Amino acid sequence: MKRRGAIKRISLAFSSLTLSTPVILTIQSCQTNSSNLNFSFFNKRQISFLEKIMEIVIPETDTPGAKTLSIVNFVDAHVAKNIRTEDQKYLLAMIEGFIDMIIETEKINSISEIDDKVLEKHFSNHIDNGSMIASNGQNYSQICALIRDMAVSSYMISEYVMTNKLGYVPIPGYYDGNVDI
User: Fold this and answer.
1) Per the domain annotation, does 173 fall within a domain?
2) At CA 19, angle to CA 13 and CA 22, rounded to 5?
3) DSSP type of residue 38
4) Is residue 114 part of a domain?
5) Which of 70, 101, 121, 122 has the smallest count of CB within 10 Å of its CB?
6) Residues 9, 10, 13, 14, Cα dihedral to 10°
7) Residue 172: inside a domain, yes or no?
């Protein structure tokens, strides 16, 4: 599989989001409580990992963070519906490889045991460093950058940002059917 092509297609799928009806419906469906939600693409281990990483990218400050806005729900739904099957397989393999590398490096049993500071260290080491090679010989800078792009794109089209920061109104303007032409 061509790695660069897969990363490029997944990045384009997230960066070219428009506010079409299917995207708005996906946004609205992702505003539910994550404890009741069955994810359609990622498993629980990957969701837990992505939630922690996305909370590092978009932390909770005076505005809600990635975990509060359920950004990972939108990413899961978007990947399941809009990314090609071979690119999905590549994405899963890279995320699993990154998780396994962190678990192996830190000598722990599962990703839920890892401290957020240690996870942030691994993520920041790989995010913008194309020459950083992990102990297993892989370069995870592309997948880290892709996760960051997915988090930021999903955050920008979340209901909170659209209504409170960007002034999005679902039905623009006042409708008056009795207007003289």
Assistant:
1) no
2) 80
3) P
4) yes
5) 121
6) -140
7) no
State the Cα torsion 28-62-149-129 to the nearest 10°.
Answer: -160
C-alpha to C-alpha distance for 180 and 82, rounded to whole angstroms: 44
The residue type found at 72 is V
pTM above 0.90, yes or no: no
The phi and psi torsions of 142 (rounded to 5 degrees) equal -70, -40
Please tell me the chain's helix, strand, coil percentages from 3-state DSSP, rounded to the nearest 5: 60, 0, 40
In a domain, 99, yes or no: yes
Q: How many domains does the chain have?
A: 1
Domain with 159, as residue range(s), is 3-13+20-165
Tally of residues, the chain: 181
DSSP state of 111: G
pLDDT tens-place values along the chain, 181 residues long: 576 677 777 766 665 555 555 655 555 555 554 444 566 788 888 998 999 999 999 999 898 998 988 899 888 988 888 888 898 898 899 899 888 888 888 888 888 888 888 888 888 888 777 666 666 667 788 888 888 998 998 888 888 888 888 776 666 666 667 777 6
